């Protein structure tokens, strides 16, 4: 028995432990409740749940599942066998019978959960022990692995510019600074304190600061956002955990490590970014807000630095030239001027598929009742036991589909909800006053009266070509076309054109009184069914009818479509090498994050920035470990 017991020691993970809502303390409780102990006892086939010591169990994931008739919280739990046996030796016989079962019970390790990495800072600090300079020229000047001599040998740290302080730029800066590079973080927008005031002036007085707004400024596009931290990379991957743990170090609540659908909300993101900034500065990173990179300094096919203009105090400045060994480009996908500048330098870029559409808004109460039925009362504006309800819908549309006549564009399109913000508001994400585009944000409690989400349709090269848009930036021209149309339909001053879902389906103007909207700058009834080419409109109409089958009540005259949602992901990819993260056409340039076409969302952009930081540190000879 002793030998068998040895084999079982360490951590076991128990999955899919379902606790009915009435037996759970609610969404904010992340400990081990009596209801959860009952489910653990069932999994162990141990008859007396109250005899299990809660200390032996740790919740690693908690989600809410309202899909079935009986909504429940679903847990993943780690069980520390050594602790369990020391506190309750009577469980030994039951543990001995435990067998690994895929997706239900897993034996993680003898020592503990080695799959979970420590915080990013620790990873980097550990890696520091590996630091070794690759190669050395005769005069003792270190060289990188390509043999290129560093302009600033390690004695005087390699100089790196990181352009853009969104999640990708922040994480790249963090990694590079931890490895000892001399990092300058250059951001065209303002620090969160001033940015908050600029956004306030936009929302209250319609004053758009073109360099400090919902897209540009400290933290990037994700700061005044819903702060959803879900990602398709896989929430248990060590890189995602490293990012989340780093966010916790900077002030995010620990619940993001456990929640099945982690989110922060703007009120949590702003102080977190301030802490991130302070830490970077402690590491010696120079941060220049209100400074836009207008050009790259290029010699041969090598970047030698950047030319910046002081966009705030001196907008007409002809620019300051700053030399760097490498430039990390983390500019997001709204920096259209930067794409244009790259085109002038023949930097290799290719078109990328993305999606366009409209943002739909319902009263949150309606979404709660569609998703939860009677349990909707438990939401209580984000204060209740169950989370504010969200949804995710998707439909594959094919041009032979019955009832549609999608006569041009690609044969198959997907139409799906995107960036759903429960208890949120629709916000203006234009960066140019002649264009109009929107997105959604929320605060941590998600307590507003509205639920909004983008409903978008995939578009690709043949859509852009139908408008005679050519070249790598054809997708950008395509976005701009609809942003300008939306601005005209709204009649100016950032008023957003809207149509009820029922009128959109019937192709009629919403003449009756419009349902209320969370959008603060005003809405105006318009023919949104005429905004996009017929194939896109029909795909949206067809999908709405399908979504209604899944979420009865979704199609309603109190649901309001807002135009236009165009910046779902980057319309361009700046091509780079898979190993080194360096541009395939310009040495010393490292395109990263969403704007470069390698990420979509806060977490994936941060992960890309982190890996790019490792790759560049390696290239600069600051690190010789694996990436
Ligand atoms: P960005 O965050 O776009 O950062 C780029 C930065 O570069 C900006 O700060 C910009 O000012 C700066 N910059 C650009 N050009 C220059 C230049 N020439 N010189 C100097 N600086 C420059 N994602 C989620 O995962 N969850 C959400 O809930 C969510 N909600 C969103 C809500 C809104 C309103 C918006 C707009 C986006 C939302 N997103 C969300 C998307 C998410 O914000 C992006 O995917 C993410 O921020 C991309 O990170 P990034 O670092 O690649 O680029």
Automatic annotation (TrEMBL):
Domain of life from the UniProt record: Eukaryota
InterPro entries given in the database record: FAD-bd (IPR002938), FAD-binding_protein (IPR028348), FAD-depend_C (IPR049516), FAD/NAD-bd_sf (IPR036188)
Domain FAD-binding as annotated: residue spans: 159-197
Lineage of origin: Eukaryota, Viridiplantae, Streptophyta, Embryophyta, Tracheophyta
Domain FAD-dependent protein C-terminal: 353-568
Signal sequence extent: none
Name listed for the protein in its UniProt record: OLC1v1035461C1
GO molecular function list: FAD binding
Source organism: Oldenlandia corymbosa var. corymbosa
């Amino acid at each position: 028995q002793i030998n068998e017991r040895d084999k079982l020691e360490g951590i076991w993970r128990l999955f899919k432990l379902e606790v009915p809502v009435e037996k759970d303390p609610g969404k904010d409780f992340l400990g081990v409740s009596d209801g959860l102990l009952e489910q653990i006892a069932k999994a162990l086939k141990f008859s007396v749940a109250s005899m299990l010591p809660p200390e032996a169990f740790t919740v690693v994931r908690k989600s809410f599942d309202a899909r079935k008739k009986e909504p429940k919280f679903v847990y993943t739990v780690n069980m520390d066998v050594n602790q369990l046996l020391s506190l309750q030796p009577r469980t030994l016989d039951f543990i001995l019978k435990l067998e690994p079962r895929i997706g239900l019970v897993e034996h993680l390790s003898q020592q503990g959960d080695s799959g979970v990495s420590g915080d990013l800072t620790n990873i980097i600090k550990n890696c520091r022990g590996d630091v070794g300079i690759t190669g050395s020229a005769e005069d003792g000047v270190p060289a990188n692995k390509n043999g290129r001599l560093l302009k600033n040998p390690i004695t005087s740290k390699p100089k790196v510019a990181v352009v853009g302080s969104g999640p990708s730029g922040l994480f790249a800066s963090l990694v590079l600074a931890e490895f000892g590079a001399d990092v300058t973080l250059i951001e065209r927008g303002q620090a969160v304190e001033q940015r908050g005031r600029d956004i306030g002036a936009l929302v209250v007085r319609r004053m758009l600061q073109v360099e400090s707004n919902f897209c540009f400024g400290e933290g990037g596009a994700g700061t005044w956002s819903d702060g959803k931290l879900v990602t398709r990379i896989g929430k248990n991957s060590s890189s995602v955990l490293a990012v989340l743990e780093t966010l916790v170090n900077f002030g995010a609540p620990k619940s993001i490590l456990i929640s099945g659908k982690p989110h922060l909300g703007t009120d949590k993101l702003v102080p977190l970014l301030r802490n991130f900034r302070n830490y970077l500065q402690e590491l010696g990173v120079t941060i220049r807000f209100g400074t836009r990179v207008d050009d790259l300094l290029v010699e041969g096919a090598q970047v030698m630095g950047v030319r910046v203009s002081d966009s705030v105090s001196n907008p007409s400045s002809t620019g300051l030239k700053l030399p760097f060994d490498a430039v990390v480009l983390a500019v997001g996908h709204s920096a259209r001027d930067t794409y244009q500048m790259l085109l002038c330098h023949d930097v290799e870029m290719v078109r990328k598929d993305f999606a366009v559409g409209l943002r739909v808004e319902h009263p949150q109460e309606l979404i709660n009742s569609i998703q939860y039925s009677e349990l909707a009362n438990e939401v209580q504006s984000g204060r209740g036991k169950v989370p504010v309800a969200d949804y995710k819908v998707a439909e594959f549309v094919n041009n032979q589909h019955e009832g549609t006549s999608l006569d041009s564009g690609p044969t198959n399109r997907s139409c799906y909800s995107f960036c759903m913000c429960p208890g949120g508001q629709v916000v203006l994400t234009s960066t140019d006053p002649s264009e109009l585009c929107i997105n959604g944000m929320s605060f941590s409690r998600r307590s507003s009266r509205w639920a909004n989400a983008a409903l978008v349709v995939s578009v690709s090269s043949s859509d852009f070509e139908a408008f005679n848009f050519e070249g790598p930036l054809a997708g950008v021209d395509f976005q701009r076309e609809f942003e300008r149309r939306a601005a005209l339909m709204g009649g100016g001053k950032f008023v957003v054109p809207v149509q009820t879902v029922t009128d959109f389906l019937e192709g009629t103007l919403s003449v009756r009184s419009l349902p209320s909207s969370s959008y603060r700058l005003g809405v105006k009834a318009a023919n949104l069914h005429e905004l996009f080419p017929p194939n896109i409109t029909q795909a949206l109409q067809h999908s709405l009818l399908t979504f209604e089958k899944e979420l009865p009540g979704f199609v309603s005259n109190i649901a309001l479509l807002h135009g236009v949602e165009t910046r779902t992901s980057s319309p361009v990819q700046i091509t780079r090498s898979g190993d080194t993260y360096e541009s395939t056409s310009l040495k010393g340039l490292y395109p990263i994050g969403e704007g470069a076409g390698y990420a979509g969302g806060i977490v994936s952009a941060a992960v890309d920035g982190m890996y790019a930081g490792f790759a560049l540190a390696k290239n600069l000879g600051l690190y010789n470990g694996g990436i």
